[in-house]
Structure formats: C-alpha cells, structure tokens
Amino acid sequence: MIPLAVVVLGSCALFLAAYFSYGRFLARHLGLDVSKKTPAVEMSDGVDYVPAKKGFLLGQHFSAIAAAGPIVGPILGALYFGWLPALIWIVLGSIFFGAVHDFSSLAGSVRHRGVSIVEMMRHYLGRTGHILFLVFVWLSLLYVITAFTDLTSSAFVDPELGGGTASSSMMYLLLGVAMGLALVKLKMPLVWATSLFLVLVVASIVIGPVLPLRAPSGVTDPRMFWNTLLLGYCFIASLVPVWVLLQPRGYLGGFFLYGTLGMGLLGLLMGGESIQYPAFLGFVNEKGQSLFPILFVTVACGACSGFHGIVCSGTTSKQVEKETDCHLVGYGGMLLEGVVAVLSLATVMILVKSDGASLGSPDRIYAEGLSRFVSHLGIPVSFARSFALLAFATFIYDTLDVATRLARQLFQELVGWKGLLGRVLSTVITLAVPFFCVSLQVLDSSGNRIPAWKVFWTIFGTSNQLLAALTLMMLTLWLKKAGKKWLISAVPMVFMLTMTLWSLFTLLSSGLSSPPGAIALVLLVIALLLLFQAVKTIRRTV
C-alpha cells in the first residue's frame, strides 16, 4: 500500500517548485514593477484603498478564498472517480489554471486602478458585455449561496453530531458579534480580544455537544428550518456594518483555517496512514456521469475557481503595497488552497470504498478523516471531530458572508437602487432565489428526497468554472492589447470553456423542466453572448 504521507508531501513539493519556477515566469511576463505605485498607495483613503504588507495580505486573502469549496469538491471528486484523477486535477489545476487565473486577476486589477473584474469587463467589452457579465456573476453567486446553505443545514440535521455542531456554530457567531463590539465600542486591544475570544471559541466546541441545538419538535422539515435560519443570517450579514460581524467573525475564522490545516497536516505526516481507497473507479461513475467534464466542475475550488477572481479584484487588489507582491498573494494564495484540497482528498484516501459510501456527506467524511489525523497528536477524537465540523461550518460562513454581500452590491449596480431601502430590497431579491432552490422537493428513483446541495452542486461548479473561463477571456484581451504574453491565460481559458460548456450541454440533456437544465440554458446563452462580444472586440483590434 502507498503511504499517504508520500502522496501529500509529493504534492506539496510540486506546489513549492511551481511557486519558484512557473510563478516567477508569470511575474516576469506580466511585467510586475516594484517601483510602480499601486492603487493602494496612490489612492490610499484609509477605508477601501489601504496598503498592507504582503505577509499580512496573504493571510487575509487566503482566508477569504479558502472556504468549504476545496473541502467538498475534492471529496466528491474522489467518491465519483477515485482519488487519482482528483489529485491530478488539483495539483495541475492549481499550478497551471487556478493560480494563473488568480495571479492575473490580481495583477490586472492593480493595473486598472484596483477596479473589479466586472468593471474591467466594461472597459474591454463595452456596456452590453458589462451588463451580461454582471448578470452572470450575480447568478453564479446565487448558486454559491444555495449549495453552501444547504450543505450547512445538512451538517446541522445529522442525527449523531448535528445538534452539537449547530449549537457550537450559533455560539461562534454570537462570539463574533461580541468581539466586534469589544473592539469598536469598548476599545479592547486586539491582543487581549484575540486571547479571550479564542478561549471562548474552544469552550463553545466543548459545550456544543453537551447542549445540542435542534429544530423545534413541531417542525416537520428540520433541514428547511435550518436553511431558512441560515438565509436569515445571510440577510443580516449583508446589511450590518462589517465591523459588527464579518470582520471579527472572519478574523476568528482565520484561526480555524490555519489551525485545521496545520494540525491536519502534522497529524497526517505523523500517523503513518496508508491509502485504502481505490485510485481509479472508471471513466463513468455510478450516477452515469462521465469523468470528462464532470470531474472538472465538481472539483472547482482547490483547482480553479472563478469566485477567486472576484475576491482578487474586489478587495485584495486595493491593498497590494507593491506590484511584485501579487506573486505571493495571488499565485501563492491559490497554491495554499491546493494544499487544503489535498488534505481534504486525504480524508477519502484513508477509507475503504464501503466506508465512503456509508459516511455519505462530505462534512462527515471530512470530520471523521481529520479527527483521525489529529488523534495522532494525542488530541481526543471526540473533540477533534467537533472541531472539524465547526471548522467546516465556519468555512461556509466565510463564503456565505462574502457571496451575499457581493451579490447584493451587484444587483444594486444592475438596477441602480441606492440607500438603505435599496440595500434591503436587493438583499431580499437576491436571497429569494436560493430560498426557492433549497425548498424544492427533488426525488430520486426510489422516491427519496435529494438534498438541494446535491441537486445544485454540478450547476454551482459549472457556473463557478465558467466564471473563471470568462474572467480568463477578459484577461487575455487585456494582455493581448497590452502586448504581453497572452497565451498564459488563453490556454487555460480554452480548456475551462471546453469543460464548462460541455457540462452545460450535459445538464441540458436532463431536460429544461429540471432546475439544473433550466439554469444551464440561461448560463449557456449568457456565456455565448459574451464570447460573441469578445470575438467582435478581437476583430476590431486585429
């Protein structure tokens, strides 16, 4: 049997080698200039444009992009097709696709005064292209909210561990609000607040299983109860000032991310585990889905993610102190997410095939696998399992916070609504779509209800990857117009377009009456119109 540590260490070695080789190659060809003033320096306003040291910015950026995606996708990919295809796509995808996408998005935004990818699309494809892309990004964010909301409720209704996870999660959110108030209203020093609230978070992990929180006894559909409550949280998080909830909650979540990654890797390397799960299960999985293109839209975050481009150009680019910092933050940040994806994949690799089927949901597989790794460090398995489940939910909160706020802002830009009433109405309309999606009753051939996240995961992955492809298309136009090596983004763009359009046609074959089929048609039409606009632009510049 192959030692698990050999595969994980080999993957990390490839990531490190890529950072110092291909990453530097990209930096040279993007023409990064250490002496050139960045928007963060030139337009510093103490609010949005604030220069940050690259080490600090890397941590902030990493915690923003590394949510639940690089956990769920790799686990599903391994369950569908075996761990080897998923591993190859994670490693090669991170190095040659995802990191190129993130690096170019960050550098491109810095070169365009820190504007978002959506605004850059206006510059290169005009008003029509801008509106189409605006709608596409908004729809993509809705599928992110749908999939991750239902994933969280799935963890909360688990008959064994769900009540404790829900209880710890609610306490964690309240601690985030309390920390924000302590920092802003009570002027508590950050060091003191960090020390206090990290202890309280650990306490919440211990208390949660003792005081489990479940849906009220009269509720006939506990999953829908939690979905509604979580979307209510998204509504509040989208409207309140960031210091009340998002910033302190995200700050505490960063410790979860680093703690989970560090303890998981250390325990994995010390445990001496061997790979048990089959390396390859065939080109067609048990659901009748083909490896091409399904693997490449199932494993999205962790290999390549269009959502990253929004983060890179939405907030990170406004904090880059020197252009050369884009190498570490953009390229290095994506490779770190690749490490998270490899660790997630490892939680499947230690299972025999029957165990993977019995555990079922990605959150359980992740929690069981991570607790097994961490137990090699002498930490009790019960605590490690609770920690892993809360970490999983925390990563999803990171995604839900950012996705809801960004979707609300995009809708406001689309319709031109201003003020508090505009923000409230835009949030309500934005969350109405995920609420409708999670409330759908989709049944399998045996008459059993299929969880909403399973129904929408493929369309979420496809829209996310298609967003990456369209972003790479726009970046290719920028590089070509600037006289730079445009093939570095054009080659990944062609591959991603091929896989995502192929996936959309596959989803269309399920029929327009199904939710994924109808959504696939809308995405396909918008994507083809954007491609048409891009071809027109290229013909004008040739």
Structure commentary:
The protein is mainly alpha-helical. The chain has one domain: Amino acid/polyamine transporter I (Up-down Bundle). Helix content is 75%, strand content 0%. The protein contains 21 helices and no strands. It has helices spanning 4-20, 22-30, 39-42, 54-65, 69-81, 83-111, 117-156, 162-184, 190-210, 222-239, 246-271, 291-298, 306-314, 325-349, 353-359, 362-375, 381-415, 419-438, 452-481, 487-508, 515-541. α6 (83-111) runs antiparallel to α14 and α14 (325-349) packs across α16. The longest helix has 40 residues, at 117-156. The protein is globular, with a radius of gyration of 22 Å. The model has no long low-confidence stretch (mean pLDDT 90).
Low-pLDDT parts are none
Q: Round the Cα radius of gyration to an integer and report it.
A: 22 Å
CATH topology: Amino acid/polyamine transporter I
Strand content: under 5%
Using the alpha-carbon principal axes, give the shape. Answer: globular
Count of helices?
A: 21
Number of strands: 0
Main sheet overview: none
Mean pLDDT metric:
90
Task: Kindly report how far apart the N and C termini lie.
Answer: 56 Å
The succession of helices and strands, N to C, reads HHHHHHHHHHHHHHHHHHHHH
CATH 2nd-level architecture = Up-down Bundle
CATH class: Mainly Alpha
Estimated helix fraction? over 70%
Helix and strand layout, with pairings?
Elements lengths: L3 H17 L1 H9 L8 H4 L11 H12 L3 H13 L1 H29 L5 H40 L5 H23 L5 H21 L11 H18 L6 H26 L19 H8 L7 H9 L10 H25 L3 H7 L2 H14 L5 H35 L3 H20 L13 H30 L5 H22 L6 H27 L1
